[in-house]
Write a structure and sequence with these properties.
Layout (H helix, E strand, L loop, with lengths): L1 H29 L6 H7 L5 H16 L6 H12 L8 E2 L5 E4 L6 E9 L2 E11 L4 E9 L5 H9 L7
Antiparallel strand pairs: 1-3, 2-3, 3-4, 4-5
Length: 163
């Protein structure tokens, strides 16, 4: 009976030896991890992660950009806001529209040529906000286009009340 006892001890010893050997293999398994130590060469570029942290700073700005207006949206918003200023025969020229980024808020000046009752007029709007919730501060329709000097004042945010 001692033989079976010795056999079971021997089996336990072999199992422990196998476990230790496998444990020794585990560090060898971690040796393939150092094989990506070529990546550690990349880690010698820890200066790269700070620019990556700058990229997340840019990321919050980028989500603001997607809700930016398309030119066609700005033109249509201005047309919709000024159609009632004209007679029902008004014809707008979206292709001839002029869009200027302003130095003040709202950030867009939109000028859309309009033809009504034999006159070549112009719709003028200042638009901000977002496409989902546009903020139209000024909208007007005129049978005369604005002079360039007035357009430049509107871009700078001057003389918006017609003063």
């Amino acid at each position: 009976m001692t033989s079976p006892l010795k056999a079971s001890h021997l089996a336990v010893a072999v199992t422990l030896l196998a476990a230790i050997t496998l444990s020794a293999c585990a560090p060898e398994a971690s040796e393939p991890k150092p094989t990506p130590s070529s990546e550690q060469t990349s880690t010698s570029a820890p200066a790269s992660p700070p620019p990556a942290s700058e990229s997340p700073t840019e990321s919050p700005e980028q989500p603001e950009s997607p809700p930016a207006f398309a030119e066609s949206e700005l033109v249509q918003i201005c047309i919709d806001a000024t159609t009632s200023a004209y007679d029902s025969d008004v014809v707008f020229d979206p292709a001839g529209a002029r869009i200027e980024k302003r130095t003040v808020s709202p950030e867009w000046l939109v000028l859309v040529p309009a033809h009504t009752n034999g006159y070549d007029g112009e719709s003028v709007c200042t638009i901000g906000g977002s496409p989902a919730d546009p903020d139209i501060e000024m909208s007007s329709g005129s049978i005369h286009p604005l002079p360039e000097e007035q357009i430049q004042r509107l871009i700078r945010g001057e003389n918006e009340g017609g003063e």
